[in-house]
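hey all, quick one before standup. I had two proteins in the batch that finished overnight and I want to keep them in one place so we stop losing track of which output belongs to which input. First protein below, input sequence then structure tokens straight from the run.
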Amino acid sequence: MLAAGSGAGVAAAEPSGQAKKPPPAVSVETIAPRQFVERLALTGSIEPTIVAELSSPAEGPVYDCRVREGDRVTAGDTLLGIGRETSVTANVAAAEEELQRKQRDFDRFSSLATRNVLAADELDRARAELERARAGLTQAQQAASDYVLKAPWPGIVARVHVADGKYVAPRTPLVDLFDPSSLVLRFQVPERHVFAIEQGDAIEARFDAFPDRPFTLAITRAFPEIDRRLRTRTFEAALPLDQVDFAPGQFARIAVALQTVPQAITIPVEAMATGTDGQPVVFVVAADGTARAVPITPGTEQDGRMLVADGLAPGDRLIVNGIEKVRAGEPVRVADAPPASAATPTEASPPASPPESSPASSKAPAEAARP
């Protein structure tokens, strides 16, 4: 009985109040309209539009290869020769001699015809033979030119496929040329976006060779067909060739603006959650300091922000961080504001230790329990 009485006295002395759990701390963003630009991220490369893949028109060993990769050439420069030209040179010489002989015959016949000594048909026959000789010389000269490879226009040697002494057959690749003034930025756009981009639109391009220098380029060409295998459409953009040196094959990262919304409602993507019905929702801080779930219709995401079609209005205080601790209808505390339910230390927590009882008061229950 004494033990029971003593225990009851201690229990009665312990405080009955408990500290209230503070509202969860959240960070908010005040909704305000801002410009939203939807961009399409693409990749591309620099390519020349004027390219020559020169092949061998004749058969024979390569000799006197005069160029290497990177060499600049002008129109008509000799790049290399192909052997077995002795016979064709002899053919040219024979054709020239034949043409000279036929020319002398025609001149003599013409003189006779003017004096009415020669019949007209004889002169016509001499004229025909002269034309055949002239055609034969042209053919011999053309055949001889097949054994000397010349540059068709000014350019840069991109690749040399052969070396002196290599035996080549007709149509064997020999030298590749490109015109540096024809370099463009070429890129492909997925089929779903091909009609959102037009010739004349501006793009932003970044090259690894110039990491801190973005370029704003204009689209100059849109290929008419969509690639049936890749389902993409090819576009070209002009390069500032007079300002920067570019090289074929350079890689580019491209951003194309698809649409611009001047006054758009956007939210950080991390502020969006999934409601109990599986639909996207966000939480806003109501006027009474509680969290309110708001269903939204999300749109396009760009640079970590989501376009919202409806559900939010300017001035709403959107909960951005701490939404995992938020429950609809329960109070929240903005992180940079003092707690709404702040209390004095005596109200918020029990005393560190129960007050000491006087000897009389501690004995009273025991004496009252005696018979």
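OK second protein, same deal, sequence then tokens:
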Amino acid sequence: MSSTDKKLEVRCPSCGTMHTYSTDNPYRPFCSKGCKAIDLGAWASESYRVEAKPTTEDLLDPDPAP
């Protein structure tokens, strides 16, 4: 078996199972359509977040009351 015949095995970010990473898999890097949908749902429900400290500009009221 040559080095070009080796298949890259990766862990599905959703379920954790090992599977062959291939351009033939339309759901890559996920192992299946279901795992891709689970990940999309987590993004849609804002389960994934990047925390950031608020800046002074974020704290200012854009429309102060008179």
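Flagging for whoever picks this up: The chain has a mean pLDDT of 85. The two ends are 77 Å apart (CA to CA).
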